[in-house]
Amino acid sequence: MSTAMRHTKNALILEYEVAAGDTATEGEAVLLDSDTTIDDCDGASDLAVGIALKSGVAGDKVPVAMFGFAVLPAKCGTGGSTRGKKQILVSDGFTDAPAHDSDNTGNSAIYGVALQTATAGQMFGLLCSGVSNRGNA
């Protein structure tokens, strides 16, 4: 019996299919392999979108507790939005955050992660995570 705490009453739980040739492991972080499929994260450089709530193999449907409080339609701005990338604001919507600026000379607020790829003017699913303000991401 696991002693790990579990309280999912207010969690945002979405169901994804495990990608072909991949796995999802209960309790491990997962990333988006496509708009509708997931895979286990391999390390710190992967941008996880949530935690698998059960294990699965290719083709299985797996519930994922998302790292965010809502998925909302957002307008893609100049520069485009790429599935799995952190999103910043531009004058006409949201776009991919630039590469991390480790010397902190940049200052971009991150509003969430794109769950779909879009071009300027299109709507896409944004996993809202609240605003975090740190150097470019």
Q: Which structural category do the helix and sheet elements fall into?
A: mainly beta
The coarse silhouette is globular
Number of strands: 12
What is the H/E order?
EEEEEEEEEEEE
Assembly state (oligomeric): single chain
Cα distance, first to last residue? 39 Å
What is the helical fraction, as a range of percent?
A: under 10%
Beta-strand content: 35-45%
Count of helical stretches: 0
Order of strands, widest sheet = 1-4-3-5-7
Largest sheet: 5 strands, mixed, barrel
* Global mean pLDDT: 88
Low-pLDDT regions: none
- Cα radius of gyration in angstroms: 16 Å
Short description:
With 137 residues, the protein is mainly β.
Walk me through what this model shows:
It is a single chain. It is built from no helices and twelve strands. The chain has strands at residues 13-18, 23-24, 29-32, 37-40, 50-52, 56-57, 61-66, 70-75, 86-90, 93-96, 108-114, 123-134. The strands form three sheets. A five-stranded mixed barrel has the order 1-4-3-5-7. The chain has a five-stranded antiparallel sheet with strand order 8-12-11-9-10, with no helix packed on it. A two-stranded antiparallel ribbon has the order 2-6. A hairpin with an 8-residue loop joins strand 11 (108-114) and strand 12 (123-134). It starts with 12 loop residues before the first strand and ends with a strand. The mean pLDDT is 88.
